[in-house]
Amino acid sequence: MVHKKIKVSPSILSADFSKLSWELERLNHSDADMVHVDVMDGHFVPNLTFGPPLIKSIRKYSKLPFDVHLMISPVEIYIKNYADAGADIISFHPEATHNIEKTIKVIKDCKKKVGVAINPKTSLNTILPVLNQIDQVIIMSVNPGFAGQKFMPEVLPKMSELRKIINEKKLKTEIEIDGGIDFDNARDAIQAGADILVSGTTIFNSSNFNDSIKKLSSF
Ligand code: DX5
Ligand code: ZN
């Protein structure tokens, strides 16, 4: 089997908010592949983070793609704002829209990559009919809302199943795993089929930031 390059998407939810430009500049000089931006509205999830004006103001400090994870409902009416603010990949949760296909189209019309995020309790069936239209599936390995939660290994069989379907259909859709990733579970996540690891706490709370990024992608 060819050893694939595992991508790492550090979540700036765990960065120092008082120095976001500096955090993004150090990510530019690291082995990170993109920047995961967790947008929460205090309604779809019980936490509130940042919106388009903040993303727009920090965008110029980063050379990496912005992997924007929208945990907001309703979502569709705000997509253009995030696209204009500098998102490159826009992911949403199926529960936040009445029409998944239409939301995908809105993102595509903005010429952005499309991601769909599925919660630990959400079935794969929710996304299978649209799998060939999406660039990335986020498998949530925590219930969304907060950084620093414990990884839920029970989502791994769902991810293996998705990997199998993507391979069988020869799709280019990538699988990102998000929540509680650390040095003890990254290997299991990769073996179950992850292409991209999101990590907040493990990267930003470590004493050597880039060593942690490299270590995560090398399992
Ligand atoms: C959870 C967010 C995650 C989170 C990851 O709702 O979607 O992206 O920031 O942080 P850690 O790696 O600390 O679980
Ligand atoms: Zn996230």
Concise account of the structure shown:
30% of the residues lie in helices and 18% in strands. With 219 residues, it is α/β, with parallel strands linked by helices. Helix 4 (100-109) links the parallel strand 4 and strand 5.
Description of the structure:
- With 219 residues, the protein is an alpha/beta fold.
- The protein starts with 6 loop residues before the first strand and ends with a helix.
- It is globular, with a radius of gyration of 16 Å.
- The mean pLDDT is 97.
- Helices cover 30% and strands 18% of the residues.
- It has an 8-stranded parallel β-sheet.
- The longest helix has 13 residues, at 156-168.
- The chain binds D-xylitol-5-phosphate and zinc ion.
- The site of D-xylitol-5-phosphate has 21 residues, from strand 2, strand 8 and helix 7.
Helix proportion of residues, in percent? Answer: 25-40%
SS strand fraction = 15-25%
Mean pLDDT: 97
Distance between the termini: 15 Å
Overall 3D form:
globular
Major sheet characteristics = 8 strands, parallel
Q: Which sequence of SSEs, written as H and E, runs from N to C?
A: EHEHEHEHEEHEHEHH
Report the C-alpha radius of gyration, rounded: 16 Å
Number of helices: 8
**Which molecules are bound in this entry?**
D-xylitol-5-phosphate, zinc ion
Low-confidence region ranges: none
Strand order of the largest sheet: 1-8-7-6-5-4-3-2
Number of separate strands: 8
Query: Strand pairing plus helix content: what structural class?
Result: alpha/beta
